[in-house]
Amino acid sequence: MSSDNIAIRTRNLGKKYILGGPQEKYLTIRDAIVNSVKMPFKRFHRAPPGEEFWALKDISFDVEQGQVVGIIGRNGAGKSTLLKILSRVTTPTKGTIELHGRVGSLLEVGTGFHPEMTGRENIFLNGSILGMKKVEIEQKFDEIVKFSEIDKFIDTPVKRYSSGMYVRLAFAVAAHLEPEILVVDEVLAVGDAQFQKKCLGKMGDVAKEGRTVLFVSHNMAAVNTLCQRGIIIENGTIKFDGETDKAIDYYSNGRERDFINSDISKKPRKRNATLRAKIINIEVKTYDGTIVDIMDSTKPFRVHLTIEAYSDVSVAGYLIIYDLKNTPILVFCSEHFQKKIFELKKGINTISCDIGPTFLTPKKYWIGCGLTIGYSEWIDHVDEGYCFVVEELDPYNSGFDYNLLRAVYHVDHSWSVE
């Protein structure tokens, strides 16, 4: 790979944290003065050493200019730490980084904007940080506001924005101020489906313009569509680096081996900062009350969600059945489809969804679950709530092996001749 064509190069990159010990913090002038006075006495009192934790270990890779790379891995694998280092939000403990071009980043909600400043002021602030002149930012300003769809609130301090509004503006700024390298973490999951589609389209346009994109997502369909290459990170190290479809297969097979219905609190989830309610358990049962994880897809079943509400709250529930490549197969929503809202009381509540025969073909699937308030504000979402296996399917007693089908599900049907 020619060094003249490199946008990103990392060598032996590592990031260490100390668990349970003294933490680094930002110092004010007052802190510095106080610490200088305390220094002679520190030898008499030492904080107990904490446990070392390496979030990243010996990460080395090159990314060519104009390449779109998907960074894949479970929650806690080290993906976001890597992007924060590349975005200069945090510093590495060891190793080197070469970045050839300006970096625009969209990390977790809250990074990069000053909460007391308005949306308009933050657009100019971010442009200045990227090294752009005021006239350049002004040329892009209307386009950014139009894309974000928050023109009515552009002169409102961003601390008053909802998480969805914040992400809309943050993505619009990151994508339109023309950085040579665009780094996008999974915050797009906060936006609604239409805006996510709009963002993915914009990232595709950015890539066609010859700019470099690093994209972190659990949505394998989006990664497969957008990215030319996939890098899988597990426990802070690179486990695979290659073509996108092969990376997704590697990742999916690894998840299949490890996929068990364990404590839901350990599953990947996204939560709204309001913390109104939380899903604490999910169970799948037959109509006679038997808990199942191997099921006959020609028969109905019932999904129970146990929810802890922190106050009285009205919520809608939804379920999404995915395959192991994160492709959504079936969606069930109490509000959108049946106009049902649940009035939860403070404490423990249970809601359920009866699902008819799905005729899913034999393989493994999982159920994601979540809670929303209204049509746009989600309050809790669990990606990998429950894993189940569809057993061998032969509804017509034909002897045909349905495992040979590439289709996802089978629909009851009949043939005739006229």
3D architecture notes:
This protein has helices spanning 29-38, 79-86, 119-129, 134-148, 163-176, 193-208, 220-226, 244-258, 334-338; strands at 6-19, 51-64, 68-72, 94-99, 103-106, 181-184, 212-216, 229-234, 237-243, 269-271, 277-285, 294-295, 301-309, 313-323, 328-333, 342-344, 347-355, 364-373, 377-390. The relative contact order is 0.11. The protein is of the alpha/beta class and 418 residues long. The protein has two domains: 3-22 and 49-257, Rossmann fold, CATH 3.40.50.300; 264-404, Coagulation Factor XIII, Chain A, domain 1 (Distorted Sandwich), CATH 2.70.50.
CATH architecture of the largest domain: 3-Layer(aba) Sandwich
- The CATH topology label of the largest domain is Rossmann fold
CATH homology superfamily of the largest domain: P-loop containing nucleotide triphosphate hydrolases
Query: Given the helix and strand composition, which structural class is it?
Result: alpha/beta
The top level CATH class name of the largest domain: Alpha Beta
Are there runs of 5+ residues with pLDDT below 50, and where? Answer: none
Shape: globular
Helix content: 10-25%
What percentage of the residues does DSSP assign to strands (E)? 25-35%
